[in-house]
Amino acid sequence: MPIPYLTLSQVEAIAREAHRRQTDKAGRPYVEHLAAVAEGVRIRGGSEEQMAAAWLHDAVEDGALSRQWLDEASLPRQVKEMVLAVTKRDGEDLFTYTGRILATPGALLIKESDLAHNADPDRLAVLEPATRTRLSEKYAQVRGLLGLDGGVRPAERRDQANPATG
Question: Which element (helix H / strand E) includes 97?
């Protein structure tokens, strides 16, 4: 008999516990960011799988949970793939990172919500000016590479240029 998948509330509880001692750059509890990203996914019409991935989106990258935990967790394959897609790897360039996000079904919505919360003016306002400027520029660059800057997303551009591939 197959083991049932973790529920969304179980994933949330695991993420909250894994990140419970972490704080963000402004000193706020990190779980506030996770909750905001999951809520951003929900209000953007995301699925339960995307919401689960949103709760876990920084877990492996931050070392709150191991890659082995993720591999062995009772989660749908697509949740694991989305988490790994948005997990920045040491030394990885932004083109590789954003390309992986764009190539993984469902991951773009998670990163869009993550960027929206990271770039929230109220969150940025409490940071030192140099940090605020550096992060704002970084988030804008990633948004641009993902096609989230108000223009057409790269995949949509490709599909429009060659309708036979879409």
Answer: helix 94-103
